[in-house]
Structures
1.
Amino acid sequence: MAETFEQYILRVMPGITKEQTGLLLSKCIVRKLHKKEILLKEGDISHYKIFVMKGLLRNYNIAENGNEIIVRFTDEGEWTTDPESYFSGLPSKYNIDATEPTEVVLIHQEDLLTLKQQIPPFALFMVKMMTDNANLIQKRVLMSISGSAEEKYLDFIQTYPSIFKRVPLHMIASYLGLSRETLTRVRQGLANK
């Protein structure tokens, strides 16, 4: 499975040398997760950047009423963490778990800082990744504030077609900030068009 991550590195970090790739790989921890296995628990501190090689993760919070509030899905070839906890050292407000059997690469925060200093292509990639994530978050916030239930649902299907097919309806509803009943009505309305 480390070969998958190595191929990814070579694809997204042009100019990285064989030695730099070896150094980066030496700092990686590969972990296999079972469905529903928690990688980060609310109250713990997020010390790792997480890359999904296979499977799907979700970042979520449990509200006081017991409802799950999903803030993010992380599919294969994507990175995640709890950024607030990761950068501040404060306890996480979120859980990260596997929605299906998942394989991840973990890079500890201290190692990541060292790697960014020693591997310029990696440092450039991290800046690009953070910029891309900020743009996705901004798009999601705008859709959440201004989109109708139907627009949110259609945007989710278009943005995350593979995730849409792999998670139950209640998780999609949670991610969109809708009740399951509202999402069911939206889906039925679209089917009748």
2.
Amino acid sequence: MGVCLRKQNTVKEENTLLCLNEGLSSTIRNVPIRSIYKLGRILGTGHFGVVKEVQVIGSEEKAAIKFILKDLVEDRINSLKQEIEILKRVDHPNIIRFFEAYEDERYIYLAMELCTGGDLLRLMTKNDHIDENKSKIILRQMLLAINHLHNNNIIHRDLKPENFLFESEDDNAALKLVDFGLSSKFRNRRMSMHKAVGTVYYLAPEMIKGAYNFKCDMWSIGVIMFVMLSGKLPFWSKFDCETCHQILNGAPEFIEPIWENISQEAKNLLSHLLCMNPSDRFSASEALDHPWFNSQPKPRIVMNQFTIDALKEYSKISAFKKEAMNILVKYLSLNEIKSMNALFSDLDEENNGSISMKLLLNSLKNAGSSIAARNEIKEIIKSLDLDKNGKINYSEFLAATYYSKHHIQQEELWLTFLHFDADRKGYITRIDIERAFSRSGHALKEQDIKNIMKEFGKEPGAKIGYDEFERLLKM
């Protein structure tokens, strides 16, 4: 495909200078990174630091850590804080799992899931193009991730092949969206933004003009789809200004010989993504409903008894156990979550990364359940729904189904304990619990703390060792 894909001209965004500690103290741990992780090889480099493979000390668990040099981000502390908040908020099988944020005197560290399959750019450069069937699988996962973001009022603004990683080397490995450094929240879908950020080849025309909304992400997806199918960028020049001029001059035509072998449905979808008018451009939800993806009807989902029983059992455990399980599932291996991911994807009929009460009730109805059982599921959802959005999110679903299997592994339990034991004392206190809940966005009241300590059979000022922690989680 040529070196043009490797040239990355990124427009930078400026932000107001704030005190680093004041801006981030509520979201990160002030803990020496080498007391937690053994540092390994460099996985990649960026504008503000490097990404390294690491291993949790005392564990076989590996992760990826983004090292961000403080001296380089003092003028964009708001963006960094927002990146962390977005990483904490997103929760989807096709978005990187975020573990924790740390800082020391020189760096901010963002610890995330380790993906070992390389990025989409590597797959593109290894082939002249990606065949249509494979492209369809890849693009659907991209759109599912973007649909989740947009439904949560988040715009990515830097979608490109390098920001999609395969979780493993397996041929059927899931694709994960990464790098939320230029992402932003928006209040409503009509809200307009004005600063041009991102990588020039993937910029939407309205972003170049200086007034855009979440639909700019859909243009970028269209560019990626074009490259996957044809092996060439639709807009490219050695000079950024010329590239921008090409983008502003309109959508590309399918005139190269390779397009003769591409289906009309694929070209039709592309025309709705690379659409000059954002109002007429497809949303992620509309793209997912396009006939190119729906050549075969989706089977009617029927909730199996195991899942119903798992949700019932999980709904009865305490708030502390639920929080601990939501942390624990972040550390599950790919093999452990593979079947749960497949079930979640089947139940996520609306393609937005959550399971609605309506979907569950319809599924129970299809299974021939009684009205009493359907009323019971309403109460179950209320109990499981930690963030009170009326739906079961991805992590909530994983936690419920994994907990019900009664084979919680020692490795994951230890890593969950370390999440609470931030400074590696060997025990946790009420303050550790309060801080851990706070980092997850859940504020605890005094009575909540008393109830949690009571679960351990402890007074509020007591220490909780690992054995006590393990015993409670396995009860």
